Amino acid sequence: MSDSLSRRQFLGTTAAGGILLSTQLGAGSLMAAEGGAMPKLPPAKIYRIFAGRTGDDYLTHPTEELARFEKYFTDLEKKLGDVKFLGGEMIPPAEVGQVASKLKDADALQIVHLSHHGGDAPVLSKLIDVGLPTALFSQPFSGHGWMYFPQWHKQGKKVVLLPTSDWGEIEKVVGLLRAAAWMKHTRILAVGSPHGTAAACSADLVKKKLGADLVTIPNDRVMEAMKAVDLKAAEAEAKEYWISKATQIVEPTIPEIVNSARMFLAVKNLMIQEKAQAICSTHCMGNPRGCLTFSKLNDLGLVGACEGDIDSTLTMLIFAYAFRVPGFITDPVIDTAKNAMVHFHCTSATKMDGPGGKRLPFRIRTQTDSRGGVALEVENRVGQPVTCAKLVNLDTMLVVPGKIIETSRSPLACRTQFAQSVPDARRLFLNWGADVIRGGDTMTLLHRAVFYGDHAKALQELGTLMGFKVVEEG
Asked: What does the pLDDT look like over 322-339, one tens digit per residue?
């Protein structure tokens, strides 16, 4: 069909409804309304403690540095807008046991190591042993106690050590602490049933390991929610977010795009009712397909995952919370000639830089293997660093870092396609799954999620805080 003609016809037929909606709510109204209505996570509560003394003693930081730290944390709280710093005691004179008793109301712990006076390992161990995800910032010249701190890492404690003069490292680790906190306030809807590794499919184990609620609902609820969505609202959604922004509409008809937009509005309303931050569905290949629904959810900073893939859903939640980027679920293949892993699928976010980023160019297509429905062909950015990852069995994060080296439009693959460089393609091919995915269907073994940014190093620290291993595939 003609892209320009179909758009022109559609914009004319929906003008009345679109003008009325924009007049009532203003430009970008649909996005603003969704932002206000979707579930909002509470600020992560991070308890601060200063360990050691200040003054003029040998290897003791100046007293005025406390004021600098206080200002830093105050400014950081305002900058992030989604964390709240509690406490602020100095040990000594505060007694470590009394401070430890206050940590029960916190999500995480941030220790600033000022000196070895009261800041040595035996004293701080009482705080570490509370079990909260913990970050310990220890600048150079903060005494000799630092050499005992690595024992906690070797013992498997949930503590990240920051022996650095760069205060910016505190902000980075606070983002990771935030992820662990928010998982405890997360509700995931699995339409039909979750598919993936056995541990991830267990609501009890997901709750025990990550703190999130996994709730299974029938597809009938989605269908009923669709019936309740006003057609004019679906037309306005289709026009505003998809048709007017696409570089081209190739196969789908306007009514098909509107029907997909109607599904998004239905799922959005359902997630609001259920107070959910994520959804996955084994019915995503039905009518309508879930491609556009999941794409926009991921654009908004929430999570929508196809084929009921609960492992990828959890992975995408962790990345969204820690790094503020959506994931692209992919069916990868290996190309040793290019030393690359080629990613492709029909469901892709258009804001791969995060909810505040610009949308990537996209064409509206059919879903490849069925040649029906509505899907996206997103043009990803060549040269962009990426991280391919998947949390499996709730205890191991598989990871492969690299860069996008090319995009493609092969008719043999799903609509969105790009190749990622890898350290050793043949080794990756032979060691796929790193011997931690055993059994399961093709989706469980095959699927990965790809994210913009090189997060491999930060994932090691996040794994320490959240209790999972990080294994580089290949």
From this structure: 999 999 999 999 999 999
Q: Where in the chain are the domains? A: 3-38+185-472, 44-179
- Does the pTM surpass 0.90? The reply is no
Evaluate whether 370 touches 437 at the Cβ level (below 8 Å): no
- Distance (Å, whole) CA 365 – CA 252: 6
Both tokens of 260, joined, read 């997909």
pLDDT per residue as tens digits for the range 394-444 = 999 999 999 999 998 878 767 789 999 999 999 999 999 999 987 778 889
Highest CATH level, class, for 44-179: alpha beta
User: Which amino acid would we find at residue 295?
Assistant: S
Dihedral sign of CA atoms 80, 462, 385, 281 in order: negative
* Structure tokens given for 383: 């040269």
Backbone angles phi, psi at 407, to 5 degrees: -115, 165
Cα-Cα-Cα-Cα torsion 386, 391, 397, 398, nearest 10 degrees, comes to -60
Map tokens 């701080």 to a residue: 124
Query: Looking up tokens 């650095």, which residue turns up?
Result: 164
Separation between Cα atoms, residue 328 and residue 352, nearest integer Å: 8
Residue type for 306, please?
A: C
Kindly give the interhelix angle for 254-274 and 291-299, rounded to the nearest 10 degrees.
50
Q: How far apart are CA 229 and CA 224, in angstroms?
A: 9
- How deeply is 46 buried, as exposed, middle or buried, from its count of CB atoms within 10 A (0-12, 13-18, 19+)? buried
| 150/121 Cα distance (integer angstroms) | 10
Q: Locate tokens 């100095």: which residue?
A: 90
CA dist 212 and 188 (Å) reads 7
